[in-house]
Model the fold of this input.
Amino acid sequence: MFIVKTLLGLVWFILASILGFLYALLRWGSTDTNHHYGKWFSWGILKIFGVEIKLEHPEFLDLHSPCVYAVNHQSNLDLLTYAAICPRNTVVIGKKELLWIPLFGLYYVAAGNLLIHRQVARRAQAGLMQAIEKVMQKKVSIWIFPEGTRNLSGVGILPFKRGAFVMAIKCQIPIVPIVGGPLSAFIDWRRLEVKSKVYPIRVLDPISTQGMTEKDVPLLMNQTREQMLKAYHELS
Done:
């Protein structure tokens, strides 16, 4: 049954990517495209797997705009869970490899999201500056995974990269941490089954960057990671 649901999920993913691409073309320049795509994609995918998202403190999602949403990253399955809560006026920063995912890559770019070349420092810095410029000009929020890659260990939260925090301080906008519960408590990969029908996601109190300078980046990184790690263990 899990395999059947996975195949149906793949079909829905392809269909949603096509619709999302066409929608992005029609709404070119809109900063709400990810929000709308996330709503209809998650509606279908969660129905297929019979899963409900339990969102804690949703009021913090739209409390500040623009802001930097700092989100833990465990698996490619994060798209399935986080899509349901993507806020309005938000673009995503992701790795350049997303461009090569058939159909979804087209949607990703058409929706105005940003690609980072992680392995090339000069290009990564250019991508960060592009994000800062976008925040300053269009007043959009940025959704980013500060770990910089998936946490394949399935335990805890990896050390953070500086980019998200440099951006938040330069733009003087708050960090809004978002934590998804451990996927290991949600899916049993050995038995190929969903263990829980409810997946918890918690939005934490926004962390102000007002008055901070770049020398405060390590402090902001540590504060954010400590709060997210605490929430992660509570959600376990």
In short: Strands lie at 52-56, 68-71, 90-95, 114-116, 141-144, 175-180, 187-188, 193-194, 198-203. The first helix runs from residue 2 to 26. Residues 2-235 form a domain with the Glycerol-3-phosphate (1)-acyltransferase fold (CATH 3.40.1130).
